[in-house]
Amino acid sequence: MLKGKVLVAQGGGPTAVINQSLVGVVLEARKFAQVEKIYGALHGVRGIVNEDLLDLTQETVANLEAVAKTPSSALGSTRDKPDRDYCNKIFETVKAHGISWFFYIGGNDSSDTVRIVSEMAQSQNYPLRCVHIPKTIDNDLMENDHTPGFPSAARFVSQAFIGANLDNRSLPGVYLGVIMGRHAGFLTAAAAYGRKLPEDGPHLVYLPERTFSLDKFLADVKATQEKFGRCVIAVSEGIHDETGEPIAVKLAETVEKDAHGNVQLSGTGALADLLTEEIKTKLGIKRVRGDTLGYLQRSFAGVVSDVDQKEAREVGEKAVQFAMFGSSDGTVTIKRVGNYAVDYQLMPLTAVAAKTRVMPDEFISAEGNDVTPAFIEYLRPLIGSDSPDPAQLRTSGSRVAKILKK
Amino acid sequence: MLKGKVLVAQGGGPTAVINQSLVGVVLEARKFAQVEKIYGALHGVRGIVNEDLLDLTQETVANLEAVAKTPSSALGSTRDKPDRDYCNKIFETVKAHGISWFFYIGGNDSSDTVRIVSEMAQSQNYPLRCVHIPKTIDNDLMENDHTPGFPSAARFVSQAFIGANLDNRSLPGVYLGVIMGRHAGFLTAAAAYGRKLPEDGPHLVYLPERTFSLDKFLADVKATQEKFGRCVIAVSEGIHDETGEPIAVKLAETVEKDAHGNVQLSGTGALADLLTEEIKTKLGIKRVRGDTLGYLQRSFAGVVSDVDQKEAREVGEKAVQFAMFGSSDGTVTIKRVGNYAVDYQLMPLTAVAAKTRVMPDEFISAEGNDVTPAFIEYLRPLIGSDSPDPAQLRTSGSRVAKILKK
Asked: What strands, in cross-sheet order, belong to the sheet with A204-206?
């Protein structure tokens, strides 16, 4: 039987529930007698290379449970994408510290790191069990019905647009919100989840899965404005033209060309500002507001899906069980069963590593500017309990007859 | 005894609890036999002028209670700032529909409207009781310890910065968040509420109550970055130089001058983008991110202070009681009693109308780049129950000794 130490790390962008997975690993690993110590690497793979390790074996359960409820990566994260040389250095630390189990919580880049380390151990005949634990707000991992972190981020985006729709209803005009997700539109699509009445926004949803046409966009906004006297729009940061060029870059170039000057595009508010400016200029609508939801989407404290919390904990727990009782490396995947339960399966790392899943066609409207009811049904079991349910004053039969202006 | 109809309306920017005040008025007014009908004006004073009125007398209690929990203004709002002519038109509708009581829920502009209408009724000897009901996320009404809407917005900003601090701790760099409040810094100051450990951000807080110096700002950021290896900054949208010129305009002019071109400044992300660009360029820090919290601050669905909900309901309820049992027009004000209770007083409209309250000096640090503990104590009873309490892994005594790099 394998004996030795557990090493766990967190990679990529933080989420609201990534610490649930960490705590799932730590608490489950403590149950196994063959585990001598549980180490956490600070700032992901970089901490492994630099031997910046924390001994989590004696963390109290009370504090671990409090950390589990805290958003962002408690061990710290990294954007490093290791190549083979980098992975060699990871492997040196693994060997020096007698690591027998390696768990890496992250997205598709992180799963690729696990794949390289796993192959390296096998080729050197070093007994190391490697398991990748999924997380990403983008929901873009292959083989997964959804990924931990996405449901809570989706809940945040949904609640933001419930509020934005009501705000826009109160003070009519055009409101545009830019949402994270460069290649996959799942999180942007979640903006539509809270719609209740036929006139509720977002009225338009633009996803990176479809080519963005500025002319079509402006025509859509104009038509919506004429129909409802207002317009709420959800836009993915990843929208692009037919050549794949991001719309933010394209619009900025136009501005630059017009001005013969140097336009600053590095700020995160650029896409929202450029699109609202287009609407103002081309459609002549006065009240046009743009927000970029930014980092709040992935780490806002206090908005979380309880379903997501539970599943994020479970993928950490299952990873340890697969590692201890199984005989192969892999990635923990979430499969949907019925309506609604989940099953966790260990799949080969190559099935997920460095690949990107995008929204299936059935979730995108034919016109490419909205989601389908199928997407809302897909999201419903994930969003969690006690979602806000906005109400409005009843207007039928209660309008007061005019006296002066009849 | 006065008999007739009640007219209620909502003005200015929406808040998370402005519908609590509306429902407080409606439910309380229904108890008085002299009230024949309760009308709500759609989109504030504009709805009064246009006779766009909703009869709320027969709204069900269940729906009213659901509306009370819904953010933004259920009756719709307006940015119209009525002059005397406009108020004359309001007064025509008031007379035509036999309105005896007028309640306007809003900020200092709305209270000034109530003042004009009140004076008009008195000069014409028309029996109209007018009461202004406070609301504003800016917390800038004179005579009030705080105003309904502010505590919930403060809670949102606090939760956003708890998350932003943890995100920044996980992936270090500079993070800057721009917060609403052109003249009063209360909401920006709330960013500091969730700090728990000495190294927690926001490390720097810039308020419109102090002159903003770009050089001092950059020196502050540099010093923080050197001390903590990271820096989280809260900035009010209203920061300005010694002449009162907004920093967003000033920085854009510099960019424009450099580029001999035409810079788009109308988008809301401009200030964050310009300041992060300054940090990148002048301090040579690579990872600099800027968010503009935008409309989420005032209408996000699902983040609300229960204290704020209760008080917003009570100011509506008290307004009706003051109007029915009292003998003068006025504005309902919130006074703090002890630690912590509140008392509601009706004060003359002129005490609040068209005036702006700003942060007192005792809430601002000597250096002008942070809040004081006194501000945190001021905010504590307002923020509401079950605020997120982030936890971190304990690092003392748990660092693993290095083997390779010892």
From this structure: A204-206, A231-236, A174-179, A288-292
